[in-house]
Amino acid sequence: MNMSEKGISRDDVSYVARRQRPDRRGAFTLVLVRHGESVWNREHRFTGWADVDLTAQGEEQARRAGELLAQEKWEFDLAFTSVLKRCIRSQWLMLEALDQTWLPVFTDWRLNERHYGDLTGHTHAEVIAAHGSQRVLEWRRSFRARPPALPQTDPRDPAVDRRYEGTVRGELPRTESLSDTTTRVRQFWEEMLKPSLRSGMRILVCAHGNSLRALVKVLDSIPDAEIAHLDIPNGVPLVYWFDADIRPLGRCFLDLPHPAESNIL
User: Annotated catalytic, 176?
Assistant: First the structure.
């Protein structure tokens, strides 16, 4: 299901909320999972909105995330993911491990990875050789710096991709800073996630490293300078719980692989 202007709307999600009538004991909970390792993750390429698939390890990471949730007997009412296959397939694998493949799953481009513009598809080493390590570090880790944009005639421009049909052309980026990504993720939180949580839905979100960093920033009001140093590991569920006003009460990772790393929540 796609929540673009052409597809599923907020009213459709509200219908699911009324129809499901979730167990209130599990209300106000949100689980965030970064997709499993992708082919370009392994090759150290700037991926962004390129629609690359999972590696075998990435598939295993997604299954393991679902198994962790199944072991703790998590049940969900609704799932969201981006429109990119590494997220969609990770979501499938998690729901399969949970034996909850029947869940309503909505896709939305606002959960996509940050758009890396003209860096898309190039290896980190290639970009460093062309632009210098300091400039590349700024593009990767500062909050407001944008990489060079895709040319308007570039075939990688999302405006010519049919999965974004119905989306206002001016909303589709040809490059993004983390600040830009946070703007669209904040909109998604306010329009889709927050109302669904308030209705009592237990929600599973599978998204990307930068879109999840943006969502964590919104939820925890993390300062711009600090969010630059935060990483979300692949395939490790991050659980949030909220009060009735949908204010975060706490968060925790399930089975964090490297808890001593200071840049992981």
Answer: no
Instruction: Characterize 223-236 residue by residue with b for buried, 16 or more Cβ atoms within 10 angstroms of its Cβ, and e for exposed.
Output: eeeebbebebbbbb
> Model confidence over 88-141: pLDDT tens digits?
999 999 999 999 999 999 999 999 999 999 999 999 999 999 999 999 999 998
Q: At what angle do helices 85-98 and 56-71 cross, to 10 degrees?
A: 40
Q: Would you tell me how many other CB atoms lie within 10 Å of the CB of residue 248?
A: 15
Element (H, E) at 216: helix 209-220
Instruction: Measure the CA dihedral 213/214/218/224, to 10°.
Output: 90
Residues above pLDDT 70, as percent of the chain: 86
**From the candidates 35, 59, 176, 208, which is the catalytic residue?**
35
pTM: 0.88
Q: Of the listed 37, 113, 176, 208, which one is catalytic?
A: 113
As a whole number of Å, the end-to-end CA separation of the chain is 31
- d(Cα 189, Cα 204) in Å, to the nearest integer? 13
113: annotated active-site residue: yes
Which residue from 62, 40, 41, 163 is spatially nearest to 112, judged by alpha carbons? 163
